Write a sequence for this structure.
């Protein structure tokens, strides 16, 4: 039985992963800062890059993102886990992927999907070079922290000492062997949009999700867009058209609608804001939106009368 996620210590977390690895495939510590968990199932492989802190805080089963999805669809799953914020820049991780390549590990699968978000998105792109022909799905990825390319990004100054110039370094270049790369980002998040632009390649599809906020992974997960995206990718059916179909779920996602309403009001568009509030309040039976619609409509009438 798994303890409440707030009480799961690091030792308990590692023991949990080790137990699952012994049962499902393997668990391998990779130095002090990283580990790999593998579940051996059928001929689709989902490769995820995960932060231990995120797993422990978000998932009550103490298992990486994608584990349940892969298990439910009888896919194999390989999770690379970082115990601290490293961007997976570690010779132990390099060596692990070298061994997988030398052993022909990826060759046994009909379809391979690499997935990660933020620093883990960086790693998913960087290590996808080990599996030419993979599908790569990235949420808010960094391309690099090398000041030569990304000195304009002040968010990670304490991590600039990490080496992004040796092996598996510049993520966009490392994704050149992929069959297709999908980059999901919010263009209103300036630094995320600038990193996304560095991934521009002929095989890259950009999926801009405006007004989603700074934690796009959490929002897409809450709307069930991300699980649907990964499921479709594993089935070989994912493309931009399908993503935008999934993304229509935002019309029923209150946090998104609130952000959009605030944006319209900030931009001085009370008429359009009133229409949005009225529509959301009616469809979702939300009294706060209804009340805001009434206030905005009164404001618009006052401006018209004036």
């Amino acid at each position: 039985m798994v303890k409440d996620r707030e009480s799961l210590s690091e030792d308990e977390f590692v023991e949990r992963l080790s137990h699952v690895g012994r049962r499902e495939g393997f668990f391998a510590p990779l130095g002090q800062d990283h580990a790999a968990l593998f579940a051996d199932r059928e001929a689709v492989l989902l490769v995820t890059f995960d932060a231990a802190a995120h797993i422990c805080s978000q998932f009550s089963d103490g298992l990486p993102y994608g584990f349940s999805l892969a298990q439910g669809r009888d896919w194999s799953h390989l999770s690379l886990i970082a115990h601290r914020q490293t961007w997976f820049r570690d010779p132990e991780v390099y060596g692990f992927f070298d061994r997988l390549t030398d052993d022909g590990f990826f060759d046994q699968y009909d379809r391979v999907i690499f997935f990660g978000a933020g620093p883990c998105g960086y790693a998913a792109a960087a290590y996808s070079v080990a599996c030419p022909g993979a599908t790569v799905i990235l949420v808010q990825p960094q391309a690099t922290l090398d000041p030569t390319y990304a000195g304009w990004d002040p968010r990670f100054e304490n991590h600039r000492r990490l080496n992004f110039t040796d092996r598996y370094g510049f993520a966009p270049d490392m994704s050149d062997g992929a069959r297709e790369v999908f980059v999901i980002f919010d263009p209103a998040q300036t630094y995320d949009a600038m990193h996304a632009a560095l991934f521009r390649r002929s095989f890259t599809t950009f999926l801009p999700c405006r007004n989603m906020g700074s934690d796009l992974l959490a929002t897409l997960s809450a709307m069930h867009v991300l699980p649907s995206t990964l499921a479709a990718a594993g089935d070989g059916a994912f493309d931009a058209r399908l993503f935008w179909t999934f993304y229509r779920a935002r019309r029923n996602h209150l946090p998104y609608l609130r952000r959009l309403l605030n944006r319209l009001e900030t931009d001085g568009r009370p008429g359009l804001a009133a229409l949005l509030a009225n529509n959301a309040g009616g469809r979702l039976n939300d009294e706060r939106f209804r009340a805001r619609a009434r206030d905005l409509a009164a404001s618009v009438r006052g401006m018209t009368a004036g």
Summary: Residues 1-6 have pLDDT under 50 and may be disordered. Residues 287-305 form the longest helix (19 residues). The chain is about 45% helix and 15% strand.
